[in-house]
Amino acid sequence: MMRLRARALASTVLAGAFTAFLGGQGLAAEVTQERLLNAQSEPQNWLLPFGNYEGHMFSKLDQINRDNVKNLKVAFTQPLGTAMIGSPDLNLMNYGLVDDGIMFVDDGWGAIYKIDLHGGRSNIQWMADSAVSKDERNRTRGMAVWGNAVYHNLNDGRVVAVDRDTGEFLWDQQIARVKHPKGTINEEKENFTAAPLAVDGKILVGQSGGDDLTRGWLAAVDAATGAEIWRTYMVPGPGEPGHETWKDQNQAWKVGGAALWTTGTYDGETGLTYWGTGNAQPMFDVEYRPGDNLFAGAIVAMDVKDGAIKWHFQYTPNEGWDYDENGVHQIIKLDVNGEPRKLLGHWGRNGFFYRLDGTNGQFLDASQYVETVNWTKGIDPKTGKPVEYDPNLAVQTYIPETRMLRGDPEETFCPHWLGGVRWQPPAYNAEKFLSYSAGFDGCGIRPVVASVPIDGGEGGIDPDEGGGIRGALAGRVVNPGGLVAAVDVRENKLVATHKQKYDNQSGVLATAGGVVFTATLDGGVVALNDETLEELWRFDTGIVGVKAPVFTFSVDGKQYVAVVCGGRSGSVQATAYPDLANMSTGAMIYFFAI
Fold first, then answer.
1. What pLDDT digit, counting tens, does each position of 280-326 carry?
2. Would residue 550 count as lying in a domain?
3. What is the CATH number of the domain that holds 331?
4. Domain count of the chain?
5. Does residue 554 lie within any of the structural domains?
6. The pTM is what?
7. Using CA atoms, how far apart are residues 293 and 282, in angstroms rounded to an integer?
8. Element at 367 (helix H, strand E)
9. What contacts 391, CB < 8 A, 6 or more positions away?
10. What DSSP designation does 46 have?
């Protein structure tokens, strides 16, 4: 680690020299809590992962609209050359942050770029290299800005702060992969992929390595120093509420998952932050971990001041289809029976769109949005649990024909383990009361094989015996495809769908111009009518699949739509989509304008 930090310091010197050469261009106003709370009043900027704290992925800009989107053209591009160095494949899922015509974006390996977008072109002002080892994953979902710094949580467990003007590293702290009083085994496998969230002088970072047999947690670090303020684990330990829902003899809670790999939302009125959690581990072998397995597959509401859990709601107890529910929980305000109410809208990975009470997590209702759901006959209108859920059972049977247990024959379950909706950000148009999502619509087959404990019952799972750390054999996809959907949140009613040939791993952006933007695995950038979801425009990048969300901003009075292109190569996608086998790989930001 000292070697990596030494490299980061060396790149800081280069960045400072480069900035001095540029004469300190691109100085911007500091990012304050008030600016972030009112981010949508600055539609020319993009200051937060989802455009605002509420998770709306919505822009008030309307210069690009339904009438003229057909004229959208590439304005310019910006290669991210460092992303390709020493990397056989890419997995970029990030956006850029834009403040007064200056963009900050990372390359997946911790190299942070400051790019001046004035004058209708891109001009790199500095690049600060956090020196992440190429042995790490190159997955990233974005950064945060606060004060006069840009913050990035890295795949190797560090969190760094970089001066926005000079590119100098202000601090570099190892937050994950360190011993912790409540920690267990496998700390060395912890990582960050969810973008950090800046709130009230704190940088919230979610531990994302659940599939590598770790416990998920959310931590707050001080924006000024990087010192950890609090840490809250998503799998409760002995003596903590919820620990009794892990009824196994394998101490599976120590590697229980419930990771946070999609950024949460924040309610500035209550001071609560809402984060969805990933699946329990091992993900498919539920008999290894009997019990409801709190707080996996749930929404957890925490107080930003101290990390205290205020309430939770678990979607699928004892879940075993890899239905993480760490997708975005949108904060939605509307009148219900003449009374103002704050709701949370969530596009479940299990195939249902949920409405919860935003003050206490009370279940309101759910509606199916994918074409086929066969793992349950529906959601109980009173409890919000699957109708087959039996609180007296340690291992839930649900519908036996689609409930994968040890020794069962091959069973087809829907949705597939990749969705519904995973990390792909949804969007919300508050003027039309429409919430949009993009994800996967298909089914899967994955036979369960028992996982084998090791480490003398201390919580380890043998990766080479039985079903390994997943508790299953390799799976197969049935009828794969993508789906963009729209729900009227006033009635929780599905009002429009748009089928796509490939599963959508980009998410959606909605704008006041009546357009919904998304991107596709075959390298397309697409505009849809925000009411009918009819396709209005498409541009084919011709280089790589796109897994990153589209975002928008304006510079010098001109609106741009941008997306980071750098998805997995065709050889990775070919299992589900053989016609993508020859897709290449690359790293490029595309900027579009009228």
1. 999 999 999 999 999 999 999 999 999 999 999 999 999 999 999 99
2. yes
3. 2.140.10.10
4. 1
5. yes
6. 0.95
7. 11
8. strand 363-368
9. none
10. B
